[in-house]
Specification:
This protein is an alpha/beta fold and 223 residues long. It has ten helices and seven strands. It is 46% helix and 17% strand. The structure holds cytidine-5'-diphosphate (2 copies). One cytidine-5'-diphosphate (CDP) binds next to helix 1, helix 2, helix 4 and helix 9. The site of one cytidine-5'-diphosphate has 15 residues, from helix 1 and helix 10.
Length: 223
């Protein structure tokens, strides 16, 4: 019997469009490594803030980015990025990181510092026997894995997305982050040509997942 293919699924979209919730379910259903690149940008932001490295200071940024070591630990099916051996804390979902993350993420040196690490998650997935990986973020289908087997772009009405975040009990500057993420020069948030665009505004999470799973199952039977 031929070996099952290793598949890469890219899911991009704005804040609270449903990327994390849907990728976690897909990872479970198809036995994939789940990679939340937003958590990487958040963790790096928390680290730079803790080191008092300003986004406006390119020399200090280069020095800090060149000095840190990025490794991966698995948390269930999810890839957890360690900075100098340390996992992210709860502060990566807090107000300070929310307010700064898109500013750091707009800096090319910050994006390059994470580029090879993100692509390297394929090796992590293969080393742990996963059948593929599902990676979510803003530039996965456009920059990180433009040749991914499946590329989805989720979007939803901003009012609905704000309601979803509030229902989770989290305060977030969704509109401001979307504005910054969409308008930056390097790797802006955009639906790449050829990606499957899904408007999740009036869909349940289950409906969104089923739509993606139907497509994926044409290449990879559920685990
Ligand atoms: O969960 P939510 O969609 O609100 O945000 P996230 O995925 O945790 O990402 C936090 C921030 O990281 C985004 O607003 C972007 O500024 C940045 N990011 C990025 O620039 N590129 C990615 N591939 C992932 C996140
Ligand atoms: O990762 P991202 O910021 O794109 O979104 P998320 O963290 O998955 O949060 C989306 C929230 O909206 C979760 O509480 C989901 O249960 C909910 N939701 C959804 O993701 N998709 C829908 N179609 C409806 C609700």
């Amino acid at each position: 019997m031929p070996a099952a293919p290793f598949i890469i699924i890219a899911i991009d979209g704005g804040a609270a469009s449903g990327k994390s919730s849907s990728s976690k379910i897909l990872a479970e259903r198809f036995n994939l490594l789940h990679v939340d690149t937003g958590s990487f940008y958040r963790h790096l932001t928390a680290e730079l803030l803790a080191r008092q490295v300003a986004a406006s200071d390119p020399d200090a940024l280069q020095a800090a980015l060149g000095a840190i070591q990025l490794t991966t630990r698995l948390d269930g099916r999810s890839a957890c990025m360690l900075i100098d051996g340390r996992p992210a804390g709860d502060e990566i979902r807090g107000a300070e990181v929310n307010a700064h993350v898109s500013h750091y993420a707009a800096i090319p040196a910050v994006r390059s510092a994470l580029l090879a690490y993100q692509r390297g998650q394929v090796d992590v997935a293969q080393a742990h026997g996963f059948r593929g990986l599902v990676m979510e973020g803003r530039d996965i289908g456009s920059v990180i894995f433009p040749a991914a087997d499946f590329r989805f772009f989720l979007h939803a009405d901003p009012v609905e997305r704000a309601k979803r975040r509030a229902a989770e009990g989290r305060q977030d500057s969704i509109t401001e982050r979307d504005r910054l993420d969409s308008s930056r020069k390097t790797s802006p948030l955009t639906c790449p040509v050829g990606a499957t665009d899904i408007d999740t505004t009036d869909l349940t999470l289950e409906q969104v997942v089923n739509r993606m799973a139907e497509a994926i199952a044409t290449k990879l039977p559920p685990a």
